[in-house]
Amino acid sequence: MTCPVLAAIYVHRKNVNPKKFFAELKRRKVYKVAIGYAVGGWALAQGVAQVFPVFDIPNWAVRLIVLLIVLGFPVALVFSWFFDLTRYGIVRTPDRESNAKIDIAQTESANEKSIAVLPFSDLSPDKDHAYFSDGIAEEILSALAKTEGLRVAARRSSFWFKGKEAELGEIAQKLNVEHVLEGSVRRDGNRVRITAELIDVGDGFTVWSETFDREMQGIFAVQDEITRSIVEALKLRLDISASPTSRSPDAYDVYLQGLFYSDKSTEEALQQSLEFFERALEKDPQLSRAWTGIAKAWLWLADAYVPPRQAYPKVREAATNALKIDNDDAEAHVYLGEVKRILDWDMDGAAREFCRAVEIDPKSTPSNYFSAAFWAARGKRDEALAYLQRTSKIDPASLWVNNSACELYRYFGLYDEAIAAGERALQLDPAFVYGEPLLAALYRETGRFDDAIRLYEKAENLSGRPAFGLAITYARMDRRDEAVRALNAATANRRYTPGDAIAHVHVALGERDDAIRELERACEERSSSLHFVGIAPEFAPLRSDERFLSILSKIGLEPEKVFASTLPHVRDGVAVPGKPAASLTAD
Are the C-beta atoms of residues 201 and 178 closer than 8 Å to each other? Predict the structure, then answer.
């Protein structure tokens, strides 16, 4: 027996036939609850009927209990429809439509071909052209990513295997690709030799290979030729449009050096990348991607090494200059969107930039990851999940994608998925060069305090950076003195610490006034992660505080919508860090 009202509402709202409705009943475990309730209710009624007379309890009490049991039956069915009892507690049962959207994002085409472009080996006499060999591989990767019907593993995932002893089969399995392109670059003076080989990992046979000997002036033609050859070998079509906007070999060479350093996480490397990008622009002012590289470098310097008000205006300037030269630069649109979100609190303007980036380059990690973060912060669950799934598919071996996905799934209450993503991040880089191990926060939230502490301490021993999450963990364990010491250690030797990072700890310690003060400082200083305190469960104790609501409204959020997105009985909305885990100073 099922609830007629529930059936009528579902069939009417979802416009489905009765067969689908009964299938939905089974998926939501309504049948199991109905049978369990009926058996339990009958047993309880029989017990009451036998026991109550012994104690001279009047019959009307027996009848009342039986009536309550009967009336509770439809209530139990409705409850079982909307909620599920798991080992993590009572959680909202996900709608089938939400799952379908994720699946669609995860498998865009059943006939889609796939490839990973591995970093090319540097065979130069002095082994001093790694930046150049990496750059050639990345240019080919970017060009292939423009091909319709071809899924290309992102750079961070493909290049993760650089210097590692890994079989092609293992690489293909981890990146979920059918083909691998590997090669080598030998540069001697103005002469360049590039060897490339396309391998079908299914049978191990070479599909295509070629060696090119050129002067530096012909490097762009070689990249285009390699790309065309691969596309033809895979029987696909390509419109070459990813060639560099500069045809100056000197400017291009310097640009590749900047690109090489911009993918590193240290302040020194990022500052070096700025120098190379600026030198490239001196040689060719129309090299738009050098401006994009400058925007990227300042984005990663922000918060971690440079105060936001100092860094983000430089991001804006560089991204704007890049778009003046090439308005179809998806990455530049992403960085401009971040500036509008962080500096201007212009959430609608930021949304337009992120949507434009995805429209231009739907297969890039920045377009999809930053979109997932943005929509999550605004309380849009379905959009955030879809973009997250696409990012995970494009960039499966990325540390910061997996680390941040762990946090996102935690906010959803999808703890199994969160654990899987967090453990992948742990395998990719135990040192967590991009920030704190967010798997430890998941351990804390599920009561595994000792596991959380061990992971935080392990990460600190490897990276040398104390974690704010450790202070939160101690506070949640009522170990106040240790929490304060951990907080002091985390803030020591930092030129800038976001106020919302410190506020996390104050909330856990029950110091609301101090937490609000730090959030107001974060607001004034434009902390990049401030937009995500609304969906972070650590800040739930502040949700009734008018000062907290005022801060969220000031920065362009709708508190009710944001809070509702994190409740188990509401579909729309989800939490995720505003930037990759590299930028987070609190979990």
Answer: yes
